[in-house]
Amino acid sequence: MGRLRIYARQPSRTTSRALVPHDRMPLVAHRNARHSYSSNPYGRIRQSGRCRVIANQAYRLPEVGAIDRSRSLTFMFDGRAYGGFAGDTLTSALIANGVRLIGRSFKYHRPRGIFTSGPEEPNALVELGAGARREPNTKATTIELFDGLVAASQNRWPSLRIDLGAINSLLAPFIGAGFYYKTLMWPASFWETIYEPLIRRSAGLGRAAEGPDPDNYEKAHAFCDLLVIGSGPAGLMSALIGARAGARVILCEEDFAIGGRLLAEKHEIDGQEGRVWAAQTEARLTELQNVRIFRRTSVFGVYDGGTYGALERVTDHLRESTPHQARQRLWKIVARHVVLATGAVERHIVFGGNDKPGVMLASAARTYVNRFAALPGRHIAIFTCCDDGWKTAADFATAGATVVAVIDVRREISRAFARVAERIGARLVTGGRVVGTRGGRSLRSIDVIGADGQAVRFEVDCLGVSGGWNPTIDLTCHHGSKPRWSDDQHAYIADKLPPGLSIAGAAAGALSLPAALLSGAKVGHEAIHTLGFIARFPDLPRTDEDPARLNPFWHVRGSRGKAFVDLQNDVTVTDIEIAFREGFRSVEHLKRYTTLGMGTDQGKAGNVSGYAIMADLTGSSITVTGTTIYRPPHVPIAISAFAGHHRGKNFRPTRLTPSHRWAAEHGAIFVETGPWLRAQYFPKFGETDWLTTISREVTAVRTAVGVCDVSTLGKIEIQGTDAGTFLDRIYINTFSTLLPGKTRYGVMLREDGLVMDDGTTARLAADRYVMSTTTANAGLIMQHLEFCHQVLWPTLDVQLASISETWAQFSVAGPCSRATLAKLVDPPFNIANERFPHLSVASLTVCGGVPARLFRLSFSGELAYELAVPANYGDGVIRVIMSAGAEFGIEPYGTEALGVMRIEKGHVAGNEITGQMTARDLGLGRLMSTKKDFIGRRMAERIAFHDPNRPCVVGFRPTNRSARLQAGAHFVPCGAAPTAANDEGFMSSVAFSPSLGHWIGRGFLQRGPERIGGRVRAYDPVRATDVEVEICNPVFIDPEGGRLRA
Amino acid sequence: MFGRKYSALSVAWHATTGNRYLTPVWRDPEPRDRYDVVVIGGGGHGLATAYYLAKEHGAKSVAVLERAWIGFGNAGRNTTIIRSNYLLPGNLPFYEWSMKLWESLEGELNYNAMVSQRGVLNLYHSDPQRDAFARRGNAMRLHGVDAELLDRNQLQKFAPFLNFDDARFPIQGGLLQRRGGTARHDAVVWGYARAADGSGVDIIQRCEVTGIRTEAGRVVGVETSRGFIRAPKVGIAVAGNSSRLAAMVGLRLPIETHVIQGFVTEPVKPLIPGVITFGAGHFYISQSDKGGLVFGGDLDGYNSYASRGNLPTAEDVCEGGIAILPLIGRIRVLRIWGGMMDMTMDGSPIIDRAPIKGLYLNAGWCYGGFKATPASGWCFAHLIARDELHPVAAHYRLDRFATGHLIDENGRGAQPNLH
Is the pLDDT confidence value at A56 over 90? Predict the structure, then answer.
């Protein structure tokens, strides 16, 4: 047995903790535990101008491992500086530095260390980074070490070493599974004020970042013939076959190094170290043009249509990323075929005190030794029920550690193992059980009972536990299938696979190295043939024997202390017993009642043991127990990664109108209307109140001329010999009779008989119409028309095109609008009233040859036109309009003035087309043709739509003219109580009318048109207003329409 | 000792006796040959129905049949929100009754369902939306429901962590129902199961209904994986499977089944006090007592009976989250699940007699069924026991699509995936 050599020899000190053996137990191994927390006098570095201590790497092994000793790194954990090397993970570096206490458990705040070496880690969760970059609950086992890394323990107070929450352990009998469902109910008011805040504060693990995520995230798509998930021996074989056959191969590996377990084991392949074979294979793959290798990339979800979600961690391992570099990249990989070679996760054995820092999976323990040259303990024992645990014993001995004992639950073990025990000087306990552990913040000793019933205590600082392997098959279940138990492999294995996915290696139960290589070759070969490639079956590399026999063993009955099944959520065997007694026996109930498997590891470490223990209690077999449902994501994914660039102002695209630049130059205030940014109003110097500005704009239109960008309205060109027929079926009123050169207002219904949209449609020629829609419904109506054309009436000769963005459109309104536009219109076109009366349309040119469409339409109620020009001319044309109108006092106006004038004029607007209104409700019932069929006609006949009590649109003005109105107020009869029974309707829009000098409104009132002249209350308790209003005609301005025809 | 009653004392007593004397929270009986009423579906609605049948209507012989395990469907897959912030008179009285039942649920069931009234806040982002929310808030107030309209300043005090700085759709304020909040969904199922069981209801798990037997136009019982069970009255409360069950008797319901995804993150220390919804995108979020952010958004959009969703919708939902809560970006999503939503043509449910005598429907909850659980059970029990609609659910008629008495809160029309 070789002596342990310490990489940089440092002074060590004897711990002050006294070891007090249980009097019944003989001490078989005794040596002062040497956990060096002492400072390294040689390791001082200067940082930020002050001296910080770098703890030495007293547990670092020399020479071995896949770390790069030429690159020293410094990192901080809980405010203390440590050293590590490139190629370390945070946990391997902490182990090398002798740090064992990493965190506290969720419920009992028990000291916890490092349990695994991968994403299945339940214990070693840390807050990574600080401030806005703080990431709570990060599995230290998956953090690639970099220089300057800062991590801190979480969920402890006041400190990691002294955590007052540990008092919960004493209350354990009272706060077992489901206790909160049975109590904390009295008095009822205490729940929100006392109990729940307490629970919420003590739950929750780490703290979220303090501000918006400052990093960038991006998304990418990839396509391949063969996607290989996992780069262990099986994955590499599959990838190699696919690559050599010429298939487009993508190989995803979540680790930063290629090789999977080959990095962690002392295997030989073709006469060299497994790690070297992996590196050579990687090099061969890298040479090929048709192969892409994604490291640090976790495939997290299997979606429909052969789509796989994957997350690439691009800069998480760098101290600083370059500006604009994405931190993470979300890949959507579409693969014709997938080989899932995700390996397996070792399971633990449940026994009292199995959570002490120092107890870890045996496979993890040797990963730290073999790959990272970090020694988890100097005096190790192995507790195993399978051959695998023996590898750890051998590897520790080779590394120079003392293997104190190997406790194998099997009574009969092979002679080879017995010889190993002898060679490494380990005490062999066959048929043994670990029945208890000792130690506070770190393991000190274990109590073992042998087959003969004899109790023995071993002083150890590390216990490797090996309970067999669970194939990592989560991804095979994302389409809804469940795994099934295999009695041959003593594990849950994949059952029904998603289409186009096959499974290889340890994930398929091929646990030994030769089996994994063979499986990878076979599955890869088959897959590549399925895809139509021709590939020779490869020569398999030569490997050493790799025994993988297993006697499943889950739980040491009668062991001392809390026996944890799910270490993260502190679910103990006792909790499972409680669930059993209370009838929560199905795995789903077990999970939900005890929180088994609901932690950040999603039960990767403990679930199967929990099922087995429940099966044991119910007297059934684990075969029938089944598992809970596996859901994406396979590993937790940051919300930011899903959101990508769609954040802040980029949440959705912003659409700008053609006159946006001009409006901005003229001081416009903009407002979001759907995707658009529109000019809301144009304040002038000295105007401090928006109402003043808007009133000025309205007055300008009513007395002179104004211009407004109305390009956001939807515009749809409808052509074809059947265009008129088509529109007759779309609109409730008739358009086939519209003369070319004329426009008409139209209303359309949904199939269910309620109003869908309104707008004007112009007939440019016999077979050519242009429809306008509301801004909000532009896309929806286009979709609707396409549906009607393609699905309902495909035989009609109609062609549709959305031209919303093709044309800039300006409303030029006011008594001087004709005079203004006349200056733009090219001769010989004449827009005199008799030549171009109200509701005319014409194609013409303006400004010396700019093609244009001129509509004589009025939303404001004044003489008005809408001028459309190709969008590129929009900016120029509004400038020309403004200068042409200058002599008449032209003013630009925004959406607010537009809204005021439409309320004054009594037009329907978007917010009144709620999808709940009939044409009659909106006062448009007379438009419904009785001479033709149209969409929605039949359903509009439903009895409820003809209820005379339906609220219909009318106008309102405050009885006290100085009162202000509020949209959203409900109407209640004057003098009646404000109750639901007296609710008669609501105010839909209001405005201050500068023309009338008081507030006006529109609203829906039961039997409204019959009640004109009467009064109701506009009741608005959420804004504490209550105004008596007069019911009036909804057209406040020029009801005869004289102005717009002028 | 202490019988079945839960109390701090009983918990203490069990603790001191090593929890040895705990007994099943509900029995696991063999199905009998016949019952007066069979309720199909062991979710929250079915169990609540059975409980109120026994408790309020004195039904002696009631069975709840569950294909898998109680609470296995949508009752265990929702985002646990309770609220009664509705607009329409067809909905408000019902959901407010539900809210009242939530408020007294723990006392009623002697089970802590963690009903937590930490508030439900709907954000508004424009003046027209503010007015629409005012209309809704006023409707709530007229129905005796609490509602407050917060302006930007008030909102900044209430929820300072929202994105007030660079939101694409500026956050201007919100409609707040303080009595809204969340409840622990599984506990609701277990609490009703325990109480129903205590009232003599048989909860039969792993009993799949394979057929509904009718004779001369009326129901006589159900065929199940555990044999024929005779019953003159059968209630269907199976959410996403409603159309499948109804098809067994040749009924075609005005329902499409869609998939919606729910999300939960790794647990973090308290961050979000109540429920918050985004008004310019589809996103809603709360934080569970365990610390996980629980959120969701839009339907995936296509009809499906598969309880799984797809990636584009997950991305869309997370975009909505970051849009209003930029500080949740680095928190990691732990689990994304899919549920089957029984979407109706107007987005509101059906609690009514089927056209076959003795068959009753409780369906069409869209993705809002959880909050309705107590009142749904209450009204469905009333309907089954008395064969007449309960006044607060009087509008949830099956024939409303023919008559036009729609209850379309959002005005989306007869397109189920838009509600």
Answer: no
